# Entry
Amino acid sequence: MTEVDSEEKDTEDVATRVYEVGFHIAPSVPEEAVGAEGTAIRDALLKEGAQVIAEEFPKSRLLSYGMRVRVGGRYVMYTNAYFGWIKFEAAADAVRRIEEALRRFERVPRFILVQTIRGETMTVPRAPRLEVKRVRREAPQAVSGQPAPAPVSEVELEKSLEKIIAE
# Structure
């Protein structure tokens, strides 16, 4: 094996792959500070030698289900969070360090790091959820000054219906 062959083999071992990290930033973070948190995550990737391919600035989103997070010795339930993502290229050994760095962000309660393809990332917004509120209806009240209507017997109801049909 020549020197050139061994160099090619070394570069194959350090081959880079494309990854994507999606993350939630806690809703307790002021909106003005969300950009700084997103930038800090991006800087953590760059520090490990990652090359950013694409990204989306974190935006406030309603979560599909509540997220229970331990904050300062107690649990807090989040129903919304700022969601952002970054697609990047990095060496496989750097990804472990990136994951450890992401775990250290106190204001990022959840993230997911996946291997993906270089192709264009499409985000399809979900339709907003509609909450159905059930309203219990009460029997109609008598209008002030008028007596409440008396209950109608079935015999009287039958007679009224026959009268209407006959007309």
